[in-house]
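Final report, closing paragraph on structural work. Over the funding period we assembled a curated collection of sequence-structure pairs, and we close with a single example.
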Amino acid sequence: MHTSKEEAEIFRQLAEGFGRSGHPNFFATLVEQLARLLNVDHALVAVVTEANIAETLAVWSSGALQANITYPLAGTPCETVVGHEPCLYACDVQSRFPEDDLLSQLGADSYMGLPLFAPDGTAIGLLAVLHNQPIQFDGLENEILRIAAAQAGAELGRRQAENALRKSEAAAKESERRLNTLLNHLPGMAYRCLNDNDWTMQLVSKGAEALTGYRPDEL
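Its predicted structure, as stored:
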C-alpha cells in the first residue's frame, strides 16, 4: 500500500515527465520513470509497423537506457497486446512464449503490456514493463501504467502526424519542381493563373520572355 504522500509524489514525477511532450527525449524519460516508479527491471515503448514488426523508441533495462531494437511480434506477449487490452503475465512468461528470444535475453519472468492508440483510435504501438521476478500490480500501479500509455500514445500519434505532414509537403514541393522543369523545357509559353479580374499568374514558364518581352517574375 502507498501513503497519500507517496502517491502525490509519484503523480508529481509523472506530471513532470509528461511535461516534456514534444521533447526528443520524451520516450527515454518515460521508460526510465516507469522502471523506477514501478520498481521493475525493464521498460520499453515501441511503434508497430504494418508488417507486424515492433520498433522500439526507448528501452530501459538493468538501470540504464539501451540501444533500440526491432523484433517481430509473432510468438511474443506483445502480439497479444497491440490493438487489444492490457495484458499481464505475472510469472513464468518465458515458458508461455518459448520462441521469444528477447524474454530470455532479458531474463524476464513477468510481463505487463498496454496498447498505444493514436487520438483517432488507431492502434500504433505498445508500452511494456518486464521484471526478472513475479509481479503483481495494485490499483495505483495500474493507474500509472494507464496514464503512461495514454500519454505515450498521444505523443507517438503527434509525431506520426508531423512526419506525415512533412512528407506531404515534401511531395508537393517535388511535384512543383517537376512541373516547373517540364514547363521550362516546353516550346513557347506555358502558365497557370487565377480566374480573377487581374488574371493573377501563379506559374509562368521561362519561354514567356521570348514571346512577351517580360520575365516570368514580371507577369
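The chain has two domains: 4-165, 186-218. Residues 186-218 form one domain. We thank the funder for supporting this effort.
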